[in-house]
Every structure is written in C-alpha cells, then in structure tokens.
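Raw record, unedited: RND superfamily exporter
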Amino acid sequence: MKIKKYITDISIKYPKFIISIFILVTLSLAFFIPRIEVDTDPENMLSEEAFVRKFHNYAKNEFLLNDIIVVGVVNENRDEGVFNPKTLQDIDTLTQNIKTWDGVIKEDIISPSTQDNISQGGVGEVIFEWLMKEPPKTIEDSLKIKDNIMSNPVLKGTMVSEDGKALALYIPIKSKDMSYEYSVMIKNIISKFSNGDSYYISGLPVAEDTFGVQMFKQMEISAPLAMVIIFILLKVFFKKNSLILSPMIISIMSVLMTMGLLIGMGYKVHIMSSMIPIFLMPIAVVDSVHILSVFHDLYPESLNKEKALRDTMDELFVPMLYTSLTTCVGFASLALTPIPPVRIFGLFVSFGIAMAWILTVTFIPSYIILFIKEESLTNFGKNDDSKGSLIEKLLQKNSEFTFTHYKKIITATCILVLISVYGISKIIINDNPVIWFEKSHEIRKADKVLNEHFAGTYMAYLVLERDYENEDIKNALKKTQLLFDEYRGELGKETYDYLNQTADSTYKIMAESENYYVQEYYSKVKDQIEPTIDENDSFALEDVYDILGEYQSESQTFKNPKMLEYIDQLSQELDSNPNVGKSNSIIQIVKKVYQELLGGQEENFRIPGTNAGVAQSLLSFQNSHTPQMLWHFVTPDYEKGNIWVQLKNGDNKSMQEVSESIEAWMKNNNSPIKIKHNWAGLTYVNVIWQNEMVRGMLNSLMGSFIVVFLMMAFLFKSPLWGILSMIPLSVTVLFSYGMIGLVGKSYDMPVAVLSSLTLGLSVDFAIHFIERAREIYSEEKNWKTTLDKMHEKPARAVVKNSIIISIAFLPLLLAPLVPYKTVGILISAILMVSSIATFIILPALIKPLKERLFPEKNNR
C-alpha cells in the first residue's frame, strides 16, 4: 500500500511537524470543553418529533401538569405519627419557604397548608376551609387535620399514609433541571428541624437531575483511574516510561479532541456521551500496544529504531486499519438507533477511534524518532521476561489443546450457543432511573420508604378524549332541526328558514374541514342566532337559544353521568393493578362534593344521576381555595379528561403491565361515548424510549454485523475467512447476553448499548490472529507449526492488548452510579471472553477447514 509507506515516511522524516499539528488541533478543540452542559432529561432519549414526546407535552399543556418533587415526612416513633404540633409546624415552615421560590408553581403545591377541607354546611351547601390555616397547638387539633385529610379521596393515600405515620408534600416545578438545586435547598431547611422526624426527597425529576451531578463525579474518578491502570499495565509489559508515555498521550488527545468537538458543536453531555472518555481511553491505546509489542520484538534484530519502526508499520498497518475500521463501524452503527443521545455517542466515539488510529500511525513513530534516544533502548526487547511466564505457558498449552481436542471444542461451543440462546429468550426488558443509584444512595432509600407509605411517587397520566366523527355533528344538526320544527309555528317562516339555513351551513363548513366538535357546532349556531333575538323580540327565539345552550352543555363529555360511571369503573380497574397505588380523576371531586351537597352521608358518595347534578358539583368545587385543581383532571370544555395514576415503582415493565391491562380492559368494555386514549408522564415516556432502544439496538447490531463481515471477507479475500473471523465475537455476544437472561439481570440501557459496542471491539482479536496466522502459514505450510508460532510473539501481543483494554474498563466499578458499574463489568468480561474465544475457537475451527482455507497441495 503506497499510502502506508507515505504515512510512515512523513511521520519519521518530519516528527516535529506531525507532533506540532496534532497538539494544535487538540488544543483548538479542547478550548470548547469548558462550555460543557449536562442533559439527563429522559424525554431527550426520543426525538422531538416522536409521538409520545409530543403527546406528553400536549397533555402537560392541556391539563396544566408539571414535574413534581415529592418530600416525605415519616415518624414511626409516636402513636400519632406526623400529626403532632411540632411536626406540622415544621411542615408549614417548609411549605411557606418553598412557596417563595421562583420556578415553583406555588398554587399547585399539595400540602396541609395549601389544600381545602371539604365539608357539609347544610343540605345543598358545601364548605371549603383550609386544612391547616395555621399550625395546630394541640394533639387533638393535629389529629383532626388528619381525619379531614383522610375524608378527602384525592388526598387520602396521596398526602397522608393510611396509618397516619407519614405525610407527603408534592411540589410542582416549572423546569426539571432545577430539581437537584431545590432538593439541596429543602435539605438545608429540614436540617434545622429537631423533632425526630425523617425526611425523604424523591421523584423522577430529582433522580434524573441528581444523576447529572453524579455523572461529573464519575468522570472525575473513572477516567483518571483508567489512565493510571493503563500506565501500570504498559509499564509491566514494556518497562520504559519514556516509551509508554506515547500511548497515554494518544489516549488523552483522542478524548480531548472528541469531547471538544462534541461540546463545540453544541451537543449536551448525556449519560451516554459522559462515557466517551472511559470508552476512548482503553480503545485509543489498542493499536499503540500492538506497535510497541512488535517494535519490542523487532528492535533487537537491527538495533536501529527507524528500521524497526518501518518494519513494524509494514507488518501492522493493514491489520490496525481494519481493526480500527471495524471498531468505528461497531460504534457508528449506533446511528441507526432512534435514540438521539445514543446516536451522538456512537458517532463521536467512532470519530475518536478514527483520530486515535491516525495518531497511532503518525504520532507514535514521530514520538519515538524525536524523543526516544538510541542509547535509551539498550537491551530493549532482549530480555523478554514474558518467555517462561504464566502467559507463555498457558499459550503453549492452548496451542496443543486446540490442535488435539478441536472436535470437543467445536461440540462444546455448539452446546454453549444453545444454552446462550435459551438464556436470551429469558431476558426481561426493564429499566428504572431510580435504580441507576446504589442501594445505599439517599434517593434509593427515599424511593423505598415513600412508596411503602404512599400511593406512589411515579406519575403517569391516562388521557381520555372525545373521539368525534362526522356522525356526531350530523346528529347535532338533526337535533337542532327538530328543535326548530318544534317552534316553527311560533318563530314564523322567515325566522324558521333562517335558523335552518344557519344550522345547515354551519354543519357543511365544519364537516368539510373535518371539524366534528359538537360543542363548537352549537356555539357557532348560537352566535349567529344571538343578534336576531333583539331584532325579532321573540320569546320563542330566546327559548331556542337557551335550549341550544342546554344541548351544548349536555354535549360536554366529562359532565355526562354515564361517562363518569365508565371512568369510575376504569379507575377501579387501575386501582386493582398491583403496580398501581392509586388513581385520581374528576370522579373523586364530583363524588366528594356531591356527598356533602346531599348532607355528608357515606351512601351519598356517588356520581349524580344527571348532567345538572354533575354541573352543580363542579360549580361548587370552583368556589374552593384550589379551583385550579379541577383543570388537572379535565379541560374547561369538558371534552378531555385525565386520570392521574400513581405507581409504586418506576420499572418500565410495571408501567407496561398497567398500560397493557388497561388496553385489554377498554377493548372489552365500550365507553358510552366514543373516546380515544393515550398515556403521558415521565414513567410512560421511559417505557417508550426503552422499547425504541431495544429495536434500535437490534437494527444497529444486524447492520454492523453485516458491514463487519463484508469488511472481513474483503480483507482476507475470502468469505469463509470472513465467517470464521465473526464466530468468536458472535459466540461471545450470545454467551454474554445469554448469561444476562439466565441470572435474571434486566436488559436496560447500558446492557442494550453494549451489544453494538462489543462487536467492533471483539473482532479486533480475530483480525490480528487470522492475519498473522495466514502470514506464518504462507512460510511454514504446516498448520501445527503455524499454530505453535502463533502462540508465541503474535499471541502475546494480542493477550497484552486484551488484558489492557479489559482491565482499563474496571475503574467504572468505582463509579457512584449503577449503569457505569454495569458497563464496566460487562464490557471487561465480554472483551476478555472474546479474546479467550479467539484463541480457543478459531484454531479448533481452522483445523478441519485447513484444506479449504489453505488450498496448497502440501497442506498438513
């Protein structure tokens, strides 16, 4: 390859120029790193055009919903629990402080200080009084507040636990990226309380924002540790500090260039892109280790560093090119996923690997020429203490074992694949942002305690909406025409004709525009009639106008008693699901107010039998101190309804089970009025992007697998060699994910991403093995001799690489976040298993196929 010689020549002849250029490029890109912004919003796991994301935002706007921080107060030591004067005083102090903060929706805070007690004030009268206008002075008054809360179906189980030992505040905020800051401010306030109460802060917004803070700690710990480990391993293998600095420099420069470019292009650092440094550092040194290994072996033969470098580059240029390309393809294939942060991660890691390869084939030779003096290389490579080492002995035994027992190896591999496939069939797809923290983390503790005491801190919203059709507005037209016919004699022919013309033209205009909104139809007809009332001075026309108003009111879906009965049944179905703690809707408000209107008896806690009864209950509630609460459950036109569902845990599978059970129930139970439904809320959004992730990873894996296979077939000029090169990594991936299924580990975000990442990395070992095996065989013409020689210098280089790259990911185990730990242990295990599989499975497969793989006559 001319390009190979050209690159090597420039690197050796102009080392100062090469090094200066790369330092300049690195510093230029690193200049952007201080502009870093963090993004932990799960909504951004989906594109802005994704239906679920658009609908989630639509629901938030329609029902005035906001992200919520949950603050729980628990007192297990007192008989009255939290309902004592001192605790309620503290809760009031906390509430009043929070109400002063910018970014908090103070009118929607759920707290004893901000909610009403709904009570009976005589038949037909409802009294709305503050639950806790001021903190109580006695235990008796405190317990009365508890009783009043427990009598409110919206607050029971939501604000107060069934046993009265715990109370929760729900703090709606305008922007979830302020959650962590608010949680710190809350902690500062409660640190001054001294009543022996335990305070807990939970909610998905807090978990996600806290995760962003912890991400920086992870980067501060794991990345430097990875560098230290890589340095130590290089020191063990190559001894010379001055020489092993070059891979370290390449690793750092690759990371700085990649992160600088990412931030400079305006991308925020997500959980995925925060892993770029820890991924790039080990990968960036892989080719450098190969160069140092071969240089280490060749230098003693010539004692000329330039010649040794040229021979090294001549031997390794093509394998390094293809290993880098395959790794780039593995990461770049993530661009096929529908998850924007994953696409960004894959493309930028791919860029970083490409830069690492360019640096390796140019910077390393320049560095050695410029900074490594000949005299410092005295005895370099001569006293190779790897000979006779444990690694050397194991490699020799492996050579004999794979040659002699190849049939057993192939059989065992097939059995392993079958077991792995079975394990994969057992994989459960699940994730939960809260379990991204360790069990000892305060967020995990808060999550456990609060979900034990309350209905649930995970919010989802089932949005119901009238599904109008042309038939609906056509029926409204007929109903209007029948009304006009009833008053025909009193209206007079001219007015009657005008009214019919108005009704008909309004219908046609709306039908043509596919606007079947019945309320709007009645409103438009009324608007055209209103000016004629004064002109005609007709009582009949006034009656028609008033009746049309009644029709309009009756058409309001969520004032219809039959519809409310259906929602009540739907809510009961939700509440019966073990994953659901409680659901709240307009039903609780209507029932409670209607109960008090009729005298407060328990048997009157029901839905009114008429539209007028429902309307009266809702109108009464709007005289409360918190009338805006109604608009969280229904829109002002009463055409859209919202059921607030509180889940006991944030597992995606739990949310999925709830949505699937409701889907089945609604199919078997038709609503009296045709409606359509969709889900909103962060808990549901997480389900969708997780499912998208799984599908995307499958497409990514299949796409990159095909591309890598074609590259292997092209590199080795043989489809058979291409297939062989893919087998070790395929077995490794199957085995790794089979074990995940067998041990019951959930298939979550980090596990999903690793499938594509490991493909590009794992095939590297096979490329070097096959490339060197073919070279040696072309000289020896004997497979046994080739195999023995392969297990000497070439194998040692691959083993060194696999050890370095595998162990370099282990610092992730020290990260404070579970996803990083998962990535660390899995990718280290996968890479180590892949290298072992390469040395065991490939030789075993090559032996029975050697006549086809090496078609010489003297094949032995």
